[in-house]
Design brief:
This protein has about 900 residues and is of the alpha+beta class. Helices cover about 40% and strands about 20% of the residues. The protein is built from 20 helices and 23 strands. The strands form 4 sheets. A 10-stranded mixed β-sheet has the order 2-3-20-18-22-23-12-13-15-14. The protein has a 7-stranded mixed β-sheet with strand order 1-4-6-5-7-9-8, sandwiched between helices. A 4-stranded antiparallel β-sheet has the order 16-17-21-19, with no helix packed on it. A hairpin with a 5-residue loop joins strand 2 and strand 3. Helix 11 packs antiparallel against helix 14 and helix 13 runs antiparallel to helix 19. The longest helix has about 35 residues. The protein is globular, with a radius of gyration of 32 Å.
């Protein structure tokens, strides 16, 4: 054989099967060269299909076992003993024991606040003789701001609660770290993980720092904010209004998008690489990913945290940590303290305590602006060790990997046997084959997912994720294998298999190198992932070149090849686990318009493509792939039959592993007023929304009256479709049901009136309003045709509209709040129709808690199956025209 990179045609016989006793024997010709030793015919030596299949199954299983072990191993090594998780658990149980803590409720504003104040006072008295001073301040801020979350809306808050605790040396401090958590919860959820456990952790961290025998260099402000679930209101009140905020140089935010498990660093910055370095240096049990940061900040995940407020309104850098496991229970009744392991509290406490202590002693905190510029590449290796280096160093490393790849490929193309661009043409063609296999695979799997969706079996995987892997994964792997098998047998039939294997390894290397180059040029720190997928396989291939030349495609070669892929592949497997851990629960609350099976099938296909990239090498080293194709086809056929038969029910009420279906039910009364203020129309009913794609399909057999006959349409000529949306998610949920019911009579009905109306000297109409009602209200504004909203009293004064061109103002208040006053400045058309007015304004009121519930609502809830989580409350909707 001329070269192990030469693509040569051979007879079909010599490329299909090895010949006995001729694999690696010296070949001697009978021509004029005499006894000249020839190179061994590697094309005659192929690996058995079963051997490769077993090796790959063992390899993938081992990787999954490592990742699973790392996610379950909450503590790495022994705890330092400075943080008492048992005491923190008692705080957690006391906080969640009061029940759901919505803003404005007694549970949130009185019971929880009093408990936190008692604990802080106790810490202050216990540490009085130490070197630190503890100062407590109870803040009740009022303010407003606009945010582009959920398509864009405006938030207004009045007298929400902040408990700020200032820990500093007794001789004072000039610079402070901020540690933030929130003690409020969504309605109908005890909010243990989101975010009571963080409050418990912060209390214990405060107790530990306050009891230190030597003083910290800088101070730490612990902020227990009471209005995060109302879209980040309390943090805005602190950072824009509290006098201590001016001394804050950086922050740490504790959040949750799941229930328990490990807390992951998923956002840092902006810039300020010294914060990441501090985490890497201090964290006892590291868990961090710059990939998560860039995915989260891209807006793909429909969520946000107080990180945004401190970054955008405070202009300070920080670190965002969140629990991400078991997001199926996030914001449900199952988010209870017993589901959070004590080890999970311990690891979070160890990490936060060590990090705050490190930052409070750091010189960089005093002059953080000096260390501001630059980003960091950061990730952990199975939770054992964290790796971090400056992005500029990452760029150099990435460029070196790209250069090494092109030198490797250039050397191959410059061999005498590849003159005239022979190798480059073969490489380009092979790239096309690989890309074709991926496109064909994606299209095929998407067709399967659409069939599953159209046959009413969507979300079968919600409780049985392994079934989705078996269905979509087998389809993806089988399609990739089929395309390459056809290419091998039909197009490359006369080419030596070993040479093809070499060629397709080069294809994988080149494609990963292109991904590396693209991400590096985009300035993304996530480029380290393709860097690993280039550097390690390339080094492995170079080290095995001589082995491959001497022994060919042997079992030892295959084992060594896979061992060389272990580090990048185990990290890739971990990232894939994180993706599914986050996105599978999200698909259960992503609304009625996005087919979740299409999304999940795409993710599984992408994971299969990424994982199989360097396995293409083996497809061309096996004698045949018929048995593997048969196995994959059989798995697919069996699973698709089981799915079609309805064996896999999406939801579960198993107390050990619940997978609830999320439903929102509002017993609402709607009142529509004419231009002169009289009531034009009024109705009342139970307004039902599904948070996932299946709608009421699985509910109807249990509650027959909830069926398509009561499906309701949103009226586009009314503000927000004529319904009392709590948040502006109408673009996600377009299917709803309206079951007629008696009129509701809340204890605090809406009082809404036009206070004044005047025409300004520049021709606009300024209207002032007063509203008084419950702790949660939303105002929807819909200017009529030809009318525009030019200014208002919210935020910076510039109206911000949503995706539908309407305006949404979210309002909440704490206890003893006065009436809400606001004004709008409207630019009317030159000739407004007298009978329609210039603007429609709707006000929805939302009543949480037990008191305003109705018998009809309770009766309906009792009929819902145990595997549902119906979040319910009473509401009203009043629409006015002016």
């Amino acid at each position: 054989m001329e070269s192990d990179t030469t693509i040569r045609r051979n007879t079909p016989r010599s490329s299909c099967a090895p010949q006995k006793n001729s694999n690696f024997q010296d070949q001697r010709g009978d021509n004029s060269r005499g006894n000249v030793k020839k190179k061994p015919e590697l094309g005659l030596f192929l690996i058995g299909e079963g051997v490769v299949f077993v090796l790959l199954v063992v390899f993938i299983s081992a990787l999954w076992a490592l990742v699973h072990l790392s996610t379950q191993q909450l503590l790495v090594g022994k705890s330092t003993g400075e943080f008492n998780a048992v005491r923190a658990r008692k705080d957690l149980e006391r906080i969640t024991g009061v029940g759901p803590r919505t803003v404005g409720s007694v549970e949130n504003e009185v019971l929880t606040v009093n408990y936190l104040l008692e604990q802080v006072e106790q810490i202050r008295s216990e540490s009085g003789a130490g070197p630190h001073a503890v100062t407590l301040d109870l803040q009740r801020p009022t303010g407003s701001f606009s945010i582009d979350f959920l398509g864009g809306f405006t938030s207004y808050y009045d007298r929400v609660t902040n408990i700020a605790v200032r820990l500093e040396p007794k001789d004072g401090a000039q610079h402070f770290m901020l540690a933030n958590c929130h003690f409020d919860s969504v309605a109908n959820s005890p909010g243990a993980s989101d975010d009571a456990v963080s409050c418990a952790v912060m209390l214990e961290v405060l107790r530990s720092l306050a009891s230190l025998s030597s003083p910290l260099t800088h101070g730490v402000i612990f902020l227990f904010n009471g209005a995060e679930e109302n879209v980040l209101q309390a943090s805005h009140g602190f950072i824009t209004q509290h006098p201590w905020a001016k001394q804050v140089k950086a922050f740490v935010n504790l959040e949750a998008a799941g229930v328990g498990g490990k807390e992951v660093v998923f956002q840092t910055g902006p810039e300020n690489p010294w914060l990441v370095q501090a985490y890497v240096h201090a964290a006892v049990h590291p868990f961090a990913s710059v990939v998560g940061q860039e995915v989260f900040q891209s807006g793909i995940i429909p969520s946000d945290t107080d990180f945004r407020i401190y970054r955008d309104f405070g202009n300070i850098p920080g670190i965002d940590l969140a629990f991400i496991e078991n997001g199926f229970l996030y914001h449900t009744k199952y988010d209870t303290s017993d589901r959070i392991l004590t080890d999970s509290i311990q690891r979070a406490g160890d990490n936060i305590l060590a990090l705050l202590k490190h930052l409070a002693m750091s010189e960089k905190l005093a002059d953080s602006s000096e260390y501001r510029h630059g980003n960091m590449v950061f990730f952990d290796v199975l939770g054992v060790v964290a790796v971090a280096y400056p992005a500029r160093v990452g760029t150099i490393i990435n460029c070196m990997a790209v250069m090494a790849t092109f030198l490797y490929l250039a050397k191959k193309s410059s061999l005498p046997s590849n003159k005239g661009g022979r190798y480059l043409r073969a490489l380009a063609l092979a790239v096309c084959v690989a890309l074709l296999s991926w496109v064909a695979t994606l299209l095929s799997v998407l067709i399967v997912s659409l069939v599953v969706t159209l046959t009413g079996c969507s979300m079968f995987w919600y409780t049985h994720f392994s079934a989705a892997v078996a269905l979509y994964g087998s389809a993806a792997a089988g399609k990739i294998l089929l395309v390459h098998t056809l290419a091998k047998n039909l197009y490359y039939g006369g080419v030596r298999r070993v040479e093809l294997a070499e060629l397709f390894f080069d294809v994988s290397l080149l494609l990963w190198c292109c991904a590396l180059l693209f991400l590096t040029l985009r300035g993304l720190c996530s480029a380290y992932v393709p860097m690993l997928m280039v550097a390690f396989p390339l080094a492995t291939k170079l080290l095995l070149t001589e082995h491959f030349r001497q022994r060919g495609a042997s079992v030892p070669y295959a084992v060594l090849y896979l061992l060389g892929l272990t580090l990048p592949y185990v990290h890739l497997m971990f990232l894939i686990w994180v993706v599914f851990e986050i996105f599978c629960p999200i698909l259960g609350r992503s609304g009625t318009e996005i087919p979740p099976d299409v999304v999940l099938a795409s993710l599984i296909t992408l994971a299969t493509i990424l994982f199989s990239s360097y396995f293409m090498h083996f497809i061309y080293l096996v004698r045949s792939s018929k048995r593997v194709l048969t196995i994959l086809g059989s798995i697919f056929a069996v699973v698709i039959i089981l799915v079609s038969s309805g064996l896999f029910f999406p939801y579960s009420s198993d107390p050990h592993k619940p997978r609830p279906k999320r439903v929102i039910i509002q017993h609402t009364t709607r009142t529509f007023h004419t231009l002169n203020g009289s009531v034009e129309h009024m109705d009342s009913g139970l307004w039902i929304n599904s948070f996932d794609y299946t709608g009421m399909n699985y509910i109807t057999p249990h509650v027959p009256e909830i069926n398509d006959t009561i499906r309701t349409r949103h009226q586009d000529d009314l503000p927000f479709g004529g319904f009392p949306w709590f948040l502006p998610v109408r673009f996600l949920i377009k299917k709803s049901w309206f079951l007629p019911a008696p009129v509701v009579s809340p204890k605090s009905p809406l009082e809404f009136r036009l206070v004044s109306k005047q025409v300004t000297e520049w021709g606009t109409v300024k209207m002032s309003f007063e509203a008084k009602g419950p702790s949660h209200m939303s105002v929807y504004l819909r200017p009529h045709t030809g009318t525009s909203l030019s200014s208002w009293s919210f935020g910076d004064g510039t109206p911000q509209f949503d995706l539908n061109g309407e305006y949404f103002i979210f309002y909440s208040h704490g206890l003893d709040a006065p009436a809400w006053h606001f004004w709008l400045e409207i630019q009317p058309p030159s000739d407004p129709p007298a009978e329609e007015g210039i603007i429609s304004i709707a006000v929805s009121c939302h009543y949480f808690g037990k008191d305003p519930r109705t018998p009809q609502l309770d009766a309906l809830l009792e009929r819902f199956p145990a595997w549902t989580f119906p979040s319910s409350w009473v509401s009203t909707y009043h629409m006015y025209r002016y």
